[in-house]
Amino acid sequence: NITWHDAIVTAEDREKLLNQKGCVIWFTGLSGSGKSTLATAVEQVLHQQQHHTYVLDGDNVRHGLNKNLGFSPEDREENIRRIGEVAKLFADAGTIVMTAFISPYRADRDQARELIAEGRFVEVFVDCPLEVCEERDTKGLYKNAPRWRD
């Protein structure tokens, strides 16, 4: 038996205090495409402009909140579900939150999008060629992957 507890301080109150609207900028793309690099660069610029921001990075979140999840399709889905819920809380707090996750499944990203108020979810596909991601191979994932092409 759980019941939602309405807060006295509203999202609008928090946004007025911060002088900004909470939102989610969702970076998605291949491993090594530059999602985290772009998210942190955007955060730095926004911070310099006096905005309250936070980056939810895939690896960082798997060190804590999602450390019990693996990389099966079910665990990947749960990983993104949890991130969507956390991003929703940050946005409700008036924060501009950037997420950096591979998040390959449209259905999972759509589920996260549905949690956020209309017009406050921006999806950014970091379109980096596979060959460049393979060259970077920041986590050693590509060298261990089966080759599907010549």
From TrEMBL:
Sorted UniProt keywords: ATP-binding, Kinase, Nucleotide-binding, Transferase
UniProt GO BP: sulfate assimilation
Pathway: Sulfur metabolism; hydrogen sulfide biosynthesis; sulfite from sulfate: step 2/3
Enzyme class: transferase
EC numbers for this chain: 2.7.1.25
UniProt keyword annotation of Cytoplasm present: no
One GO MF term attached to the UniProt entry: adenylylsulfate kinase activity
Catalysed reaction, written as an equation: adenosine 5'-phosphosulfate + ATP = 3'-phosphoadenylyl sulfate + ADP + H(+)
Cross-referenced InterPro entries: APS (IPR002891), APS_kinase_dom (IPR059117), P-loop_NTPase (IPR027417)
Domain APS kinase: 21-145
Keyword Transferase: yes
Role, per record: Catalyzes the synthesis of activated sulfate.
NCBIfam families: apsK, PRK03846.1
Family membership: Belongs to the APS kinase family.
Identification of the protein by name: Adenylyl-sulfate kinase
Organism encoding this protein: Geodia barretti
